[in-house]
Specification:
The protein has about 280 residues and is α/β, with parallel strands linked by helices. About 35% of the residues lie in helices and about 25% in strands. The structure holds NADP nicotinamide-adenine-dinucleotide phosphate.
C-alpha cells in the first residue's frame, strides 16, 4: 500500500484526502492519503523523521509551503521561480523533489478570461500568493498588480520576487490602507486565509468599492464555499469564483506527478457536485 499525506497546520479544513482517496479507489491503485498535522514548534524536528519513512508523496499546505524548501533534495525549475512548494514526489532513492501545482490550479477557472485582466488586486503575500502572482504574470501581462498584505515586509519580498515581469507595474500596500488604492480592478483575488474554516465570519477587505463592470472576484478559500468576501461581491452583482476549481486543478496535477496517470474525469465530476 503506497502512502501519501498532506502536511500542514491546521488541517481540519482539508478536502485533499477525500479527493485523492476517491481517485486511487476509482483507478484500483493500492494507496492511501492521510492528514499529517504538524504544529509549527514541531516542524523542524518532525520533517527529518518523516524523510526516513516509507512515503510516496506529499502535499504541503499552510503555513509550510516556503519553509519546506530547505528540506527538499531538488526543486523543479518553475517551482524554484515561484518559491513555494505544494507537492513532493519521493523518488526511488528516497530523495524529495518539490513541485508547485497551485499556479496551474489557480489559472484553471479563469483560463478563458486572461486577456481581460489589465488591473489586478491581490490580497496576501504568502505561499499561495506567490503561485497566483507567478501564474498571472507568466500567462497574461496586466498593466498593474496591487499587492495588499497585513505585513508590508512580506508584500515587499513578494514584489521583489516578481521583478523579472517588468511589463507589469507591481505596487504594495498594507491591507488596512485600502484608501490609497487608486483604481478599480478587473480581477480581485483573496489569497489570505482570512475567512477560512473557524474564522469564516471574517472579511479581509470589502471588494465591492474596487469593482467595475465585469470584475471577477476570486477567493482561494473553498471551505466555506462562499466567504463573506465572495458574498459581498455576489450580492453586488459581480461574478465570483471560490477555491474549489483551483483545489481540484492542483490536485489533478499532483496526482499526475505521483502516479503518471490522469485524474479520473468521473471522480472530478462527482467531487464538483459533492463539495
Ligand atoms: P500562508 O503562506 O500562511 O499565507 C497566509 C497569508 O494570509 C499571508 O499573506 C498572511 O499575511 C495573511 N494572513 C493570515 N492571517 C491573517 C490575518 N489575521 N489578517 C490579515 N492577513 C492574514 O498561507 P497560504 O499557503 O498562502 O494559504 C492562504 C490561503 O489560500 C489559505 O486559506 C489556503 O487554504 C488557501 N489556498 C487554497 C488553495 C486552493 O487550491 N483552493 C491552494 C492554496 C492555498 P502576513 O504575510 O502578514 O502574515
Amino acid at each position: 500500500m503506497k502512502k501519501f499525506a498532506i502536511i500542514g497546520y491546521p488541517l481540519e479544513h482539508s478536502f485533499s484526502p477525500k479527493i485523492h482517496n476517491a481517485a486511487f479507489s476509482e483507478l484500483g491503485i493500492s494507496a492511501v492519503y492521510e492528514k499529517f498535522e504538524i504544529a509549527p514548534d514541531q516542524f523542524k524536528e518532525t520533517i527529518p523523521k518523516i524523510k526516513n519513512g516509507d512515503w510516496y508523496g506529499f502535499n504541503v499546505t499552510i503555513p509550510y509551503k516556503q519553509s519546506i524548501i530547505p528540506f527538499l533534495d531538488a526543486v523543479e525549475p518553475v517551482t524554484k521561480k515561484i518559491g513555494a512548494v505544494n507537492t513532493i514526489r519521493v523518488r526511488g532513492d528516497g530523495s524529495w523533489l518539490g513541485f508547485n501545482t497551485d499556479y496551474q490550479g489557480f489559472l484553471h477557472p479563469i483560463a478563458g478570461n486572461l486577456k481581460n485582466f489589465k488591473k489586478v488586486i491581490m490580497i496576501g503575500a504568502g505561499g499561495a500568493a506567490r503561485a497566483v502572482a507567478f501564474g498571472l504574470l507568466s500567462h497574461c501581462t496586466p498593466e498593474e498588480l496591487a499587492i495588499l498584505n497585513r505585513s508590508l515586509e512580506n508584500a515587499r519580498a513578494l514584489a521583489g520576487h516578481l521583478s523579472e515581469f517588468d511589463k507589469t507595474k507591481v505596487t504594495i500596500q498594507k491591507t488596512d490602507d485600502t484608501g490609497a488604492l487608486h483604481f478599480k480592478a478587473d480581477l480581485i483575488i483573496n489569497t489570505t486565509s482570512v475567512g477560512m474554516g473557524s474564522r469564516s465570519g471574517a472579511l479581509i477587505i470589502d471588494p465591492v468599492p474596487f469593482c467595475k463592470m465585469k470584475t471577477i472576484v476570486y477567493d482561494l478559500i473553498y471551505n466555506p464555499a462562499e466567504t463573506r468576501f465572495l458574498r459581498r461581491a455576489r450580492q453586488a452583482g459581480f461574478k465570483t469564483i471560490n477555491g474549489l476549481p483551483m483545489l481540484l486543478g492542483q490536485a489533478a496535477e499532483a496526482f499526475k506527478i505521483w502516479t503518471g496517470r490522469n485524474f479520473p474525469e468521473r471522480v472530478l465530476k462527482d467531487l464538483q457536485k459533492a463539495f
